[in-house]
Every structure is written in C-alpha cells, then in structure tokens.
Amino acid sequence: MLGKIEKVELREIWKHEAIDFTNWLAESDNFKLLAEEIGLDMQVLKTEANVGGFSADILAEELNTGKKIIIENQLEETDHKHLGQIITYASGLEANYIIWIFKKMRDEHRKAIDWLNEITDEDLSIFAIQMELWKIGDSNPAPKFNVICSPNDWAKAYKKASGSGNLSDNNLTQLNFWEGFVDYCSQHKNPFKGKRTARPQHWYNVSIGNSHVELSLEIIIKNSLMRVSLYIPDNKQLYKELESKKSEIESAFGDTLDWKILEGKKASRIDFETGDIDIQNQENYADAYKCLLDNAIKLYNAVKKYIK
Fold it and tell me: What is the pLDDT of residue 167?
C-alpha cells in the first residue's frame, strides 16, 4: 500500500529562525544538500556574521575561489525588509553570491531578483530558494530546496566578454560549448558536485575537493583536440608523490598520461589528449561532452586515493 505525501509547516520543526533553522542549515550534511541543489561547492565560515549593526544569517565561501557567499533565511513569505537586508549584507561583506531562503516568494520580489541577476555582471549572482518539508505517513520530515530564481550565467559571461570588446568567434564557440557541457554534466552521473560558470575561454576547471589540485578540461579549436588534465597550481611535492605512483595511476586510468613537472614554474600537470573532434560543429558536441566527462571521471578515479 502506498503512503500519502504530506507537506509539513516549517515552524513545526524550526520554532526560531536564527536559533533553530540557521543552526540546522549550517550543519555539514544539511549545508551540503543546499550546495548540491544550486551547484556551488561551498562551506560555512560563520553564522550571524556582523555587518555594521546587523548580522547576516550565514557567511560562507566558494571552495574553489574563496568568493564570499551570504545566506539570509526567512521562514515566512518574502518581504521588502529582507530584500534590503540581503543587498546590505552583500555590500558590507563584499559577497559575490547571495542566497535568500524563504517559505514563499511574492511575485514582486521574484521579479526584483530576476532583474538584479539580469543587470549585474558575473561578480554578483543571486539565488532565491523556497524551503519545504515533506513526509510520507509517520516518516520524519525531509527537506526540499526549490530554486525559484538563479543567475543567467551565459548572459553574464556574454555581457562581460562583449563589454570588453574581446568576444571573437572562438570566444562564442567556447562559451556555447561549455554552457552545454555544464548542462550535460547535470544530466549525467558524475562525482563532481560543484558547478562553475561557463566562460568564453578554452578551459573549464572542475573542483575535486582538494584545494591543491583541480581537473582542467580544455578544447583547442585550432587543432581539433581536447585535453583532460590534473592541474596542480603550486605543489611540486604533490606532483612528485603522484609521479612516484605513475604506473599504478596509468594502469587505473587505462592509458598513457603526459607528465609535466613544468620546471621553472609553480604549476605542474598530468595530461591526456584526445584528437579529431571539430569543436566548431555543434553536431559533435554530444560526443565531445561524453569524451570529456568520461575521461575526467577516469582520471579522477585513478588519482583520488593519492590526493585525499
């Protein structure tokens, strides 16, 4: 016999917004649910972060870039007061991301957030999240985050590039390619939780949960090739430790890798190249996305036990 899904009032579980809900959300497992829903790889820095005579509910940061994130919670319908607060907090803390969580959003506030996302550049992105609780029969309530408003990353990246006067045909191809790749990853199982903004450039980096390394995906339009790399910005010792496991890593990957310590530079990298893919032909995108993601997963799986 099937159970009936029932909605649970937020105030039945969290009586006090700051003491109960904010502290619940700041717990690692709960915060991870929010991070996965909006596609940001982020961690809590502090709760009740002071901004003048006020305090933001949660101050967090994006793990990959260190960009600041402010989160404002409202277990009621949205109001003008909280709209003003999120803008004040973002300004005072120099945040690049705003996350506004609420029970219900008024239409005028949704329009305001959509408008702000449209007119601001990629240095400020705003997410509006509806919070819900659901249960089946006598089960414990389960949280559900619904994204009501989110930044249009393609439009922002396009605006920034075109505004600088540097948007070439290749830039447009790159931007279009990576935007499609982000969508492809969201629809196919993979271990990469964070989602970065697509940019009009030849590379796209993926966080793998270690501040010392990244997976770098590249498209070289001129040479019709793609590259998946383990990029180590500034840790020669880690590179040497990985190189000492070269045979094990290549065996796990299933192919030969190109090991580059890059003498005289801070960075090091481990590359795998694939060729014969015309990136300018959009009919090839599905195959290209599969190739990139498959090889990125293989490389990650081959090295993950050595970089944890």
Answer: 64
